Please model this.
Amino acid sequence: MLFFISTGTGLDSVAKVFKNPVLIVNLLPLMSMASWVDSITIPKRLFWGDGKELTLLEHLDNSYTDTNQYKEKGIKVVDLTPDEIKSAAHEMIERLNKIPLTDKQIQNQNKFWDIFEHHNLYSKLHGFRDKNASFGLSFLNNNPDFYLNKQEYSSRL
Model:
């Protein structure tokens, strides 16, 4: 059971060349996720100045490669906690042990890809999606508002 853990800064390319699964944690911007390889990706957590966490669409709309751009937009960037990274590693181990996803997990993955692939930046940065590329379900379980759009999120407050 071999997999590579990375933050998506380049060293993970070695694992990708040898077709080893990759767990990418603390990735920014999320739009840069490695959709073309066997992977699980979890981004850094992003918060507006008022403390509200950014939704998936807001993550994608604010895909910056310079930390100053996040500051200029009033977005606080927060690393995942050790427990969040540990949960992601357990998720990868379960995948490698071929533990099947629940219907709800499959539904969550499909919803992620539907939003991700329909974003206007997707076609510019992604051409192929590996069937084993996924977004971290552990992240989704702990962030139930991640899929909400701005209007839905505001109405829940």
